[in-house]
Amino acid sequence: MMKKYILLLTFTWFFSCNDFLDVKPTGTVIPKTVEDFDKLLNNKLITHDNVQNVLFMDPDWWLPGFHYSGIWQPVYRKQYNWDPNPYEVVQQDTDWNGRYQQIAVYNEILGKVDDAELGKIPESSRNLVKGEALAQRAMDLFLLVNEYAVHFSASTSNEQGVPMPLEFDLLTSVPMSTVGEVYDQIVADLLTAEELLADVSPINKNANFRPGIASIKALLAEVYLYMGDFVNAEGSSEESLALFGHENVYDYALIDHNTPGSPWSAFNNDREWLYITDHKDVTWGRRHFQWFYDPAGLYHPDLAALFDKTIVGDRYNDHRFYLNSGDNTYYDNDVSVGPDYVYVRDYAATNAGLGVPRTMLTNAEAKARNSDGSGAIAVLNQLALYRYGTLGSTFSYTTDAAALQEAKDERRRELCFSGNNWFDLQRYHAYGETIPTYTRDIPGTGTITLVPGDDKYIVPIPRVVSNANDNF
């Protein structure tokens, strides 16, 4: 019989739990050995519920007129309205809770792994477990600070970030760290993890929610990109792609719906798409959303206009739009959305973590920002081979500025409805670049507005947490 591995945790400062559980429950094992810690890291729940709050906040997610009535959960409705308090006073936020639960696990491992007995695994596993725990903590802090704090820049590095517990001591009140402090810790954790995991495989193909060395380099590239350090973003992305690169990207020309032309019938071989852990192009899996039909959201017209909808054969030239768009909100017998398009992703999760296409796009953007626009175009054309019906050079170099815009547009197309656009808008603004002012017409309310740099870009800390803490 498989043993249950649990930690005796009390989330006094995150989850409004007041009693400290200090008695070993019957039928459980208290993790003590390096082997135990390794098993704690082998938990698929790590992948669940990441940056889900921003799906309805993202301006590319569009619900005009009566489509708005399809938002049946009050929190989704408030998020679509950019409400400063989307959760009720006693309502829990799974994004927040899930990340801090995992950080507590990683801190428990990091506090004990150096002195723990091995169990039934070799001494070499000690550094691997330690490196993974550091890397996973860095990933969770990166997701948290970008969701619940202002975006990093030289002018915001001293502003309020998120709590950053680095030890397993749940009875200690943890103060709010600054954005800069959180980013410094993320980079430090990843660089140490990079050393500890230097000799492991590029990714963990049996459990892609556990990072390999290519995974860590890919996250470093993304962190550097978010910090505006484009030289290191280019270098780390190059290193990651050299280990796990474009040969792992899905060729969308070889994928269709179970019923061709019927997008709500899901992709063929749909079981491969249902779980992030089964996607072959994932470098580091963290599930974002799994079901997109309840409620179904539309492409904002500006986003839809970016896709090449020229018909080539029996599909749009941009195969992503063929595979992920439709004319009806739910399967084939529901509401027509014409002349607009609904986002269709049935039995196919989106990744809030890292995959080869995202790292390629990070590399392309960094190249363009580092005055290598022709190199950026070459990377975009490499990805285009797997995405467009007309093969060959889909993009052409003219200027570095134009190459940068192509990289931005392709990133928006490739990563739409995964949460990335929400964060990209914030970082472009932090770089000093122009982003749009967005409006939404809400039935019964009127027009609401999201301006560049608006506090509405920051997901509020759930009130059940903030009301129970003097520190934030």
Descriptive notes:
This protein is mainly α. It has one domain (34-466): Serine Threonine Protein Phosphatase 5, Tetratricopeptide repeat (Alpha Horseshoe), CATH 1.25.40.390. 37% of the residues lie in helices and 7% in strands. It is built from 15 helices and twelve strands. The protein has helices at residues 34-41, 74-80, 94-112, 124-148, 179-196, 213-227, 230-243, 271-274, 301-304, 319-324, 356-369, 373-384, 400-414, 420-430, 463-466; strands spanning 61-62, 160-163, 176-178, 282-284, 298-299, 311-312, 315-316, 325-326, 342-343, 354-355, 438-442, 446-450. It has a two-stranded antiparallel sheet with strand order 1-5. The chain has a two-stranded antiparallel ribbon with strand order 2-3. Helix 1 (34-41) packs parallel to helix 4 and helix 11 packs antiparallel against helix 13. The radius of gyration is 22 Å and the shape is globular. The two termini are 44 Å apart. The model is unreliable at 1-27 (pLDDT under 50).
